[in-house]
Amino acid sequence: MINETFISGVFLIGNTQFADPRGKFSRFFCKEELSTVLEGRDIKQVNFSCTESIGAIRGLHYQSSPHAEMKIVRCLKGKVWDVVVDLREDSPTFLSWHTEELSPSNHNALVIPEGCAHGFQVLQSGSELLYMHTEYYNPEYEGGLRYNDPKLKIPWPIPAVDISERDLNHPLISSNYKGIKI
User: Fold this and answer.
1) What domain count does the chain have?
2) How much is the pLDDT for 36?
3) Nearest to residue 128, comparing CAs of 103, 146, 107?
4) 61 given a catalytic annotation
5) Among residues 72, 80, 174, 177, which one has the least CA distance to residue 130?
6) Which residues of the chain have pLDDT under 50?
7) Between the CA of residue 74 and those of 27, 61, 132, 133, what are the distances in Å?
8) What's the pLDDT score for residue 116?
9) Residue 60 sits in a domain of what CATH number?
10) Within a domain: residue 181?
11) Catalytic residue flag (residue 177)
12) Is residue 178 in some structural domain?
């Protein structure tokens, strides 16, 4: 199941899990099944994160052109509240955000297209995420937004804790912010 959200290019991907007395099996990635989402892109990097503190927030991060990336994010353990913010300058949903709860029990993944920022809040201790990227990490093109930017008004589900110094120092969106070109 692949469902596009109201933000163009942001998809929720459902996953079928097969179980028998031995345990469970799931396919996390199939290029052919995701061809309509990937549109010719290739997965170039796979990352993993584990966050211990309930309420911790990572993000909101993005990479700008020419190293803009699509991400596919899946929660392997625990539970997170995942957030996508549209930063594309000509998008009809510019500065809109979409959220999904990701966990192993709901078997979902979220696709974050180029030009969108991504972050999440941990709802269960020890939450683990798997990220698949269509571009290599390039720190010179990395950017971020502050999680509590008053212009976005993201209603994080629980009080924020354990935020990195870098994430606390991301700039607020100014009144003349134009977004990013893809």
Assistant:
1) 1
2) 92
3) 103
4) yes
5) 72
6) none
7) 12, 16, 9, 12
8) 97
9) 2.60.120.10
10) no
11) no
12) no
